Each structure stands twice: as structure tokens, then as C-alpha cells.
Amino acid sequence: MRHSTLHDTMHSRSARVLPDWHSTFSANADVTCNTVHARGALDLFTVELLRGTVGVLISAGQVDVTIDLADLSLIDHAGVSLIAGISHDLACRSGSLTLINANPSVQRALETIDLQVVDRR
């Protein structure tokens, strides 16, 4: 009984630690123009959503992918690492990743690892 109570307490504490915005991320793939539209906060809690969405395009045979970051409000280290990994994976397939329309804070985070953002607004 003690173990169950401790587990329940730990679980409820960890649930309260998660930020309110962690579930606000969405990513939609437009296969006709090889573009993923990212919205919200791209962080440790949401990177798998972007990975899966880009995976849809790659599975469809697309090797030149664009991620539109116009509606991305936040990116953390996990998000930056994921985007770097996607860029590398596409380059290994003789493709490329283009990042467009990032706000200044997202752009600075991406530029720390030499990922360039194009402004197409």
C-alpha cells in the first residue's frame, strides 16, 4: 500500500510540473507542396508530433521538405535537435530541408547550430 501511495503522489507531482502550453503544438503536412506547417511550442513534449508529420512526407518519397515556422511560438533544445536531425536525414537522401518564416527568437535558436531560416512572408 505504501508503494502505491508514493507512486500516486509522484505521478500527480510530475503532472503538475508540465507546462500548460506543452500540448498546444500541431503540425500539418501539405503533400502537394512538401510543406509542414508548425504551430505552437516545439519542445521535449511535442517533438514526436513534428517527427511523425515530416515522416509522412518522407514516406511519400519527398526528399526536399519545407517547414513553415511562422506560427511556432517556442523551440527548445529538443526541437532544435530534431530539426537538425531532419536536415541531416534529408541530406543523406540527397534532399534538403528549408526553414521559413521563423520569429526572431526561434531563428536565433536555430542559428546557434547553423540552420538558416528564409523569410517568405
Report on this model:
The protein has 121 residues and is α/β, with parallel strands linked by helices. The protein has a single domain, classed as STAS domain (Transcription Regulator spoIIAA, 2-Layer Sandwich), CATH 3.30.750. The chain has helices at residues 2-17, 47-59, 77-92, 104-111, and strands at residues 26-30, 35-42, 64-75, 96-100, 117-118. It has a 5-stranded mixed beta sheet. β4, α4 and β5 form a beta-alpha-beta unit. It is globular.
Q: How many β strands by DSSP?
A: 5
Unreliable runs: 1-16
The number of helical segments is: 4
Our estimate of the beta-strand percent is: 25-35%
Which CATH architecture would you pick?
Answer: 2-Layer Sandwich
Overall number of structural domains: 1
- Order the strands across the largest sheet as they lie in space: 1-2-3-4-5
Which sequence of SSEs, written as H and E, runs from N to C? Answer: HEEHEHEHE
Helical amount among residues, as a percent range?
Answer: 40-55%
Q: What oligomeric state best describes the polypeptide chains here?
A: single chain
Overall pLDDT score:
84
CATH homologous superfamily (4th level) name: STAS domain
Largest sheet descriptor? 5 strands, mixed
Indicate the radius of gyration in whole angstroms: 17 Å
Which CATH class is shown?
Alpha Beta
What is the SS-derived class? Answer: alpha/beta
Shape: globular
CATH topology: Transcription Regulator spoIIAA
- For the termini, the CA-CA separation is 59 Å
Briefly characterize the structure:
By secondary structure, this protein is of the alpha/beta class.
